[in-house]
Design a protein that fits this description.
There is one protein chain. The chain is mainly alpha-helical and about 425 residues long. It has 2 domains: about 90 residues; about 300 residues, no CATH class. The chain contains 19 helices and no strands. Helix 4 packs across helix 5 and helix 12 crosses helix 17.
């Protein structure tokens, strides 16, 4: 038996799941912090795997659409116990954040009924979170002229040209168009990697189970068709919600920060299902919740179905969660068994450079649009055109100053996100 196989056999599944739960209850700060916690507990403390093995799994997740930290820990479960343990790992990892974000969607109406808006500082804080994330991603992308051009192209189309291209940009399909377009442009113009895949790349005894990718695309197509003919009743909204979140999960590269502009476009501006204030509150509170950032869809699903009663609201949270995590899970279950073979080829990297660059531009665009929503007063919500500004006192100076100060503080001081959220809530109670 190989060394790796012996190590896997010794792992106790229940103990492994307890470790997953311990991380899920304490993992604040996004994929980078999650990776650090995986290193500390799974590598250094439990010695389930080595640091190079962990980084390899994380690198695999980075190459796939979906939540990278979720896919990394799911791949760990697959490595140690096959598909069944991978599925249990996924559930344990998601569950705490799902519960907390769902509770928030139920409790927000209670807070709205109070005379004091205790979440009013959460909204500029959320804008600061998105802006600093966009700037951070932009700095990483700013290595090479092609990446910079693709990032700026995505930002200009999604933010600055949205009113000139209203009929196109207003639709949610602008995001996959920009992401896929960035990948295609990068593939043809990025010559740094040699062409390693040839006619004999997958010959010999190399077998791939094509059932999972077929299932992946079948769900994508059927969900799209069902959403096309869905009505405006609660059942119809659930179908559309699943299609939206499944599409997001199938197309998102770069983590939860890239998911935000897609949800902003679809839920807030296109369908008007969630108000900008409630959306920003959810983003801000999501930073204080441990576990995967993608559980923001649990909150959004609950908010979308809130008016239809508690059971529909719970259904919205469940459907939003399943929709966003299902595509990435299917991809991990498909890719991981054959990863040792396909990781030798670099053809995908040439395209991924463009996808990541375009994703960074979309995050910057989301920060820009969210800043407009809190920094200025508009006659009609979600229409950020200068002719739609209130005629007098249209600048909300307090929010503008708060966003700028908070963005500076987030950049200069490495204070955990939950602390910032707690301070914002306390400020809302005091002031």
């Amino acid at each position: 038996m190989s060394k790796t196989g012996s190590k896997v056999k010794k792992i106790k599944r229940l103990l492994f799941l307890k470790d997953v739960l311990a991380i899920a209850l304490t993992a604040f700060g996004g994929p980078e912090m999650h990776l650090a916690m995986f290193q500390k507990r799974m590598v250094e403390r439990r010695k389930y795997l080595t640091s190079p093995e962990l980084l390899e799994l994380y690198g695999l997740a980075q190459m796939l659409p979906g939540p990278s930290s979720t896919q990394t820990i799911t791949a760990m479960g697959y490595k140690f116990g096959g598909a069944f343990l991978a599925f249990l790992t996924l559930i344990v990892w998601i569950l705490p954040a799902f519960i907390l974000m769902t509770i928030l969607s139920f409790s927000l109406s209670f807070f709205h009924g109070l005379n004091k808006d205790i979440f009013r500082f959460i909204q500029p804080l959320a804008v600061a979170f998105v802006l600093t994330a966009g700037v951070s991603m932009a700095r990483k992308v700013n290595k090479g002229r092609l990446r910079l051009v693709l990032m700026l192209m995505a930002f200009v189309v999604a933010a600055l040209l949205r009113h000139r291209l209203e009929d196109y940009v207003k639709t949610p399909w602008i995001f996959p168009v920009l992401l896929i377009g960035g990948g295609i442009i990068s593939y043809f113009l990025n010559k740094k990697d040699s062409e390693l895949i040839g006619p004999s790349a997958f010959d010999g005894h190399f077998r791939i189970n094509w059932q999972l990718p077929a299932f992946f695309f079948l769900i994508f197509i059927l969900a799209g068709l069902a959403a096309r003919f869905a009505g405006d009743d609660p059942t119809g909204r659930l179908i559309i919600l699943f299609e939206n979140t499944y599409r997001f999960g199938a197309l998102v590269f770069g983590g939860g920060n890239v998911l935000i502009p897609m949800m902003l476009e679809q839920f807030v501006q296109f369908n008007n299902w969630i108000t900008p204030d409630d959306f920003l509150t959810g983003i801000g509170m999501n930073q204080a919740v441990p576990g995967p950032i993608f559980t923001i869809t649990s909150y959004c699903g609950g908010m979308i179905m809130q008016a239809d009663g508690p059971w529909w609201q719970l259904g919205g949270a469940v459907v939003g969660t399943i929709g966003i995590f299902l595509p990435g899970t299917l991809m991990i279950f498909f890719i991981f068994p054959v990863w040792n073979r396909i990781k030798k080829y670099k053809i995908i990297k040439r395209s991924l450079d463009g996808v990541v660059a375009a994703s960074s531009g979309l995050v910057l665009a989301a920060g820009y649009l969210l800043f407009l929503s809190v920094g200025f007063k508009w006659k009609e919500p979600n229409s950020y055109h200068f002719t739609n500004l209130e005629p007098e006192n249209f600048i909300q100076y307090d929010n503008v100053i708060l966003v700028l100060i908070l963005s500076l503080l987030l950049t200069k001081f490495k204070v955990p996100a939950p602390v910032w959220v707690l301070l914002a809530i306390i400020a809302g109670i005091i002031f």
